[in-house]
Amino acid sequence: MVVVGAGGFGREVASLLFELRSRGVGFGDIGVVDDRPSMANRARLHSLGVPLIGTVDDLVRNCRETPVVLAIGSATARRAIADRLSVTDATFPILVHPQASVGAGVTLGEGSVICAGARLSAQIRVGRHVHVDQNATVGHDCDLEDFVRLNPQSCVSGDVTLETGSLVGANATILQGLRVGGHTLVGAGAVVTHDLPAGVVASGVPARVHARVVAAQAG
Ligand SMILES: CC(C)(COP(=O)(O)OP(=O)(O)OC[C@H]1O[C@@H](n2cnc3c(N)ncnc32)[C@H](O)[C@@H]1OP(=O)(O)O)[C@@H](O)C(=O)NCCC(=O)NCCS
């Protein structure tokens, strides 16, 4: 299994893979690719015992039905790498931590990662390459479009739509029935009480839009 990204989430996903392997669910040897791993992240990978095996270009060149997980927080970067891999025969398994719960009628898209403690209640649609980080909760009838990311402890109430590439910060709450526009960033700790348009940054209680997303932040 190739994990794309040597950063914090990449190593958390490696840990998830260890956990699955200890329960007999294996995807073969684990290696990481990253185009620009920092020295600190190289050292952290080394101490985890996970080899750095090259760059995304190497992965694209050498892909042989390789299982791959895109473990990068930025939705824009995740999408760009998914596009590059679309010409290969890479596969994108769905990874669910044994301590997560996924209820009845929940559908998970390829490459989605559901971390420890996450709870998805019932009849939720999760798109491709979505990350649901530790202890995030998602209520009934939600629609999490492709490349969405829920940071730890975020709370998405029932019947919410999170459009493509949007991000919900740690400990933020989205009230029921709302829609968050594509690539919008909801700040840590925010409480979203109205629909949010695409491409904005919103934070606070109640959440207020205070900026447009700029490329450097793009979720
Ligand atoms: C909201 C957010 C996207 C804004 O990022 P940004 O535009 O780069 O904002 P800055 O860091 O430049 O901060 C701008 C101002 O907003 C404030 N601010 C930043 N994040 C905030 C938040 N979540 N809630 C309230 N105010 C916040 C800052 O204190 C700063 O105020 P100041 O100008 O009075 O000092 C970001 O701070 C955030 O919350 N991201 C989610 C982070 C997260 O979930 N982390 C956990 C990862 S596991």
Quick gist of this model?
The protein has 219 residues and is α/β, with parallel strands linked by helices.
Task: Extract low-pLDDT stretches.
Answer: none
In what range is the share of β-strand residues? 25-35%
Architecture per CATH nomenclature, i.e. the level-2 architecture of the largest domain: 3 Solenoid
Q: State the fourth-level CATH superfamily of the largest domain.
A: Hexapeptide repeat proteins
Q: What report would you give on this structure?
A:
- The protein is an alpha/beta fold and 219 residues long.
- The protein has 2 domains: 2-85, 3-Layer(aba) Sandwich (Rossmann fold), CATH 3.40.50; 95-212, UDP N-Acetylglucosamine Acyltransferase, domain 1 (3 Solenoid).
- It is built from 4 helices and 23 strands.
- The model has no long low-confidence stretch (mean pLDDT 96).
- Coenzyme A (COA) is lined by residues 151-152, 169-170, 185, 187-189, 201, 203-204, 211, 217.
Q: Main attributes?
A:
219 residues, alpha/beta, Rossmann fold, UDP N-Acetylglucosamine Acyltransferase, domain 1, eight-stranded mixed β-sheet, six-stranded parallel β-sheet, 4 helices, binds coenzyme A
